[in-house]
Amino acid sequence: MMPLFGLAGLTGVLKGDAMHRERVVRLLLAGALVMTAAACGEGDGFRADGAGPTGDWRTVGCEFSRPAQYTTSGRHRMLVTPPGLAAVMERIDRGGRERFADSFAGLEVDQEKVRAVIYRVPSGDFDDFVRASAGDECVVVRDAAHPLSELTTWHERVVADLAFWSAQGLHITTVGGRHDGSGVEVGTRDLEPTRRALLGRYGEHAPLIFVAEGPFRPLAPRTGD
């Protein structure tokens, strides 16, 4: 399974030891993919349409089997997102951000199964919007712990404090909200000290996910074949 669709939205920020370097990772709706679609079978407990405001469900378009689509570049054969599904994803992404920011968390694509996966804090109104937007495409809707609006606020708060954390001797290398609504991921070279410090400042229930990351190393230029 090769995901090929990204989102406009939360950024990742990199700060070096002297805070002279900054890397911004943008998840672009029209760009290359950074999401990983989770694998699950068609009979994995999802309900087709008619679902209540809580729980995972699928649109009626998921009842139809569709062959995966490919493109060829040189010797490489790659999965692609069909234009119809891409348009549905763009429509849901835009509407989720503009009209349902307190429910919508993010989305991804499963190109192998030709379907989109939407993450949202349960909302009957947003589910109705997804049904109306999906047409005959397959869209899987999954519960999320936090909406995009909440994670954006936490993302901005941590980024605004990067200079403070650097002064405390903590090396935070990346900050970025997860598209499944699980939290804001904080990459650091000092995993346990950073966890203790940030949760001490923001509260133990802050939706922060800490991952161990080394310092940013730019790729060395090629000097020849």
List its traits.
5 helices, alpha/beta, disordered N terminus, 225 residues, 12 strands, single chain, 2 domains, five-stranded mixed β-sheet, Lipoprotein, globular, three-stranded mixed β-sheet
What does the model show?
It comes from Actinoplanes couchii. This is Lipoprotein. By secondary structure, the protein is of the alpha/beta class. The chain has 2 domains: 12-21 and 148-212, no CATH class; 29-143, no CATH class. Helix content is 26%, strand content 26%. The chain contains 5 helices and 12 strands. The strands form 4 sheets. Strands 3-4-9-8-7 form a 5-stranded mixed sheet. It has a 3-stranded mixed sheet with strand order 10-11-12. Helix 1 runs antiparallel to helix 2 (124-134). The model is unreliable at 1-43 (pLDDT under 50).
Map the helices and strands.
Blueprint: E1 11-15, E2 22-26, E3 47-48, E4 57-58, E5 69-73, E6 76-80, H1 83-99, E7 104-110, E8 115-120, H2 124-134, E9 139-143, H3 148-160, H4 162-167, E10 172-177, E11 184-188, H5 191-202, E12 208-212
Parallel strand pairs: 3-4, 8-9, 11-12
Antiparallel strand pairs: 1-2, 4-9, 5-6, 7-8, 10-11
- Major pleated sheet: 5 strands, mixed
Distance between the termini: 32 Å
Write down the Rg.
Answer: 19 Å
The gross shape turns out to be: globular
Written as H for each helix and E for each strand, in order along the chain, the element string is: EEEEEEHEEHEHHEEHE
Q: Structural class, judged by helices and strands?
A: alpha/beta
Query: Could you give the count of β-strands?
Result: 12
| Domains, number | 2
Overall pLDDT: 80
Q: How much helix, percentage-wise, in residues? A: 25-40%
- Contiguous helical run count: 5
Strand % is 25-35%
Give the low-confidence spans: 1-43
Protein name: Lipoprotein
